[in-house]
Design a protein that fits this description.
The chain has about 450 residues and is mainly β. The chain has four helices and 35 strands. It has a 29-stranded mixed sheet that branches. Strands 5-10-13-16 form a four-stranded parallel sheet. A two-stranded antiparallel sheet has the order 8-9.
């Protein structure tokens, strides 16, 4: 790493303030419609899909307001939000989603792991809506387990592998997204919550459990607030919150205990991400807690559309099952840029692998026709009590990591050496290694 003079640091609060000037939660009319008025029964057995849909439709048609779900267990299929509706789960309320795939048909426009298609409806879904919210102290239970949804991941058949390969092939061939139709028989799992092309979004207070795969997925959204939620879901690909191809997003005071990345900021994969308007920009993550997961705060791996202007600060992370604390991942087949990223005041107790990982060979792919640009990453006051290593930085010969700044970082008990490859024009100031020994970042 080259010895360069670091620019004067900008505080995380100042950077966040610039983004948050564009973020404000929606406000709803003072109107309340209770789902039980429309025939919903919280006995855990009655199918409440039609009753919940009727309440949402009536609320939106009346000019908006709150659709109230009282205490009880309400069994349902897909729930689709409409304009100006706040779906509120009271304390003791459970939305218990059906384990039957046919309850998420007909197929809807969606995106599966960064690639556009038509597939099973996400369980909580909205497309092209304004002023929508999911709030309250209740629980969203996706019902996934080893016999439902999670068993679609791998052999024995039936599993999602063939459909995933077909989806990737159709995207590479330039097939229009509207012709990529999956759903019944394909075994591509739906998200638990996906809001697509929505504006003015609030998700607050709710607990999410047992997601089929990605849990909270704002996709091509603008002005999103996610506040005070708990994601406790440990299945395969059970990311906690994945803002993708979205602008102006706040994630604060949330707790993540997941089977994959806790937060993963994304922007599409391959040809769909390379289309205009797919970038993610203006994301603030603050005051969150991360437990188990593949990464605490992650950018990638689906970042073909570009990710910029991200600030993550005042977060606490610790678990023997947390693999990495801060993570950036991409490769030379996916391309895109990741730049203008600031991590600050990140307190890590135990992390199994690296406290900071930037890997441009994700999936062990080190060659390709779309080398990524990863630059202008600043890490201030990252501390880890126990880690596999402090740093794992893997650039590529023709796409090095550029202008990485580490300031006042400390790594206590580490079990292995740092890895630094193809990192240029970067500097470490006040970096402590091994029980607080202060030393300059290695120059490579």
């Amino acid at each position: 790493m080259s010895d360069v003079s670091p620019a004067r640091p900008i505080s995380a609060e100042a950077r966040a303030t610039q983004i948050l000037a564009r973020v404000s939660p929606p406000v709803f009319p003072d109107r309340v419609l209770d789902v039980t008025t429309f025939g919903a029964i919280g006995d855990g057995a009655t199918d409440c899909t039609a009753a919940i849909a009727a309440a949402i439709a009536a609320c939106s048609a009346a000019g908006g307001g709150r659709v109230h779900v009282p205490a009880g267990t309400f069994r349902t299929g897909a729930v689709h939000l409409l304009d100006d509706v706040e779906l509120h789960l009271a304390a003791g309320a459970v939305l218990a989603f059906s384990q039957e795939p046919e309850d998420y048909l007909p197929v809807v426009r969606t995106r599966y792991e960064g690639v556009d298609c038509y597939n099973y409806s996400p369980f909580l879904y909205a497309v092209g809506r304004r002023n929508i919210a999911l709030t309250g102290e209740g629980v969203v239970d996706g019902g996934a387990d080893e016999q439902h949804w999670w068993n679609w991941v791998k052999a024995p058949a039936p599993h999602e592998g063939p459909a995933k390969q077909r989806l990737l092939a159709t995207a590479a061939a330039g097939m229009p997204a509207g012709e990529r139709v999956f759903g019944e028989g394909s075994h591509l799992r739906p998200n638990l919550l996906q809001f697509l092309e929505c504006e003015n979004v609030l998700i607050s207070g709710v607990t999410f459990r047992r997601s089929p795969m990605w849990t909270i997925h704002p996709l091509r959204c603008r002005n999103v607030t996610i506040r005070g939620v708990l994601v406790d879901s440990h299945g395969p690909n059970n990311d906690g919150c994945n803002p993708e191809s979205s602008r102006d997003v706040l994630i604060e005071d949330c707790t993540f205990d997941t089977g994959d990345d806790c937060i993963a900021i994304k922007s599409g994969k391959g040809p769909d991400g390379w289309q205009p308007g797919q970038a993610t920009t203006g994301v603030v993550v603050r005051d969150c807690r991360m437990r188990a997961g593949h990464g605490g705060v992650t950018i990638g791996s689906e970042a073909s559309g570009g990710v910029s202007d991200v600030v993550a600060y005042r977060c606490q992370m610790s678990s023997p099952e947390l693999k990495r604390a801060l993570r950036i991942k991409t490769n030379a087949e996916r391309g895109g840029y990741i730049r203008d990223i600031l991590f600050a005041d990140i307190e890590v107790g135990v992390v199994r692998q690296a406290a900071l990982e930037i890997a441009l060979d994700y999936g062990r792919v080190s060659e390709g026709s779309h080398p990524p640009e990863v630059a202008d990453i600043e890490v201030q006051r990252l501390s880890a009590e126990s880690a596999g290593c402090g740093l794992r930085l893997i650039g590529l010969p023709d796409a090095p990591i550029q202008r990485l700044q580490l300031r006042d970082c400390s790594f206590g008990a580490v079990s292995g050496p740092d890895v630094v490859q193809h990192v240029i024009n970067s500097v470490g100031v006040g970096v402590g290694v091994g029980r607080g020994e202060a030393e300059q970042l290695p120059q490579r």
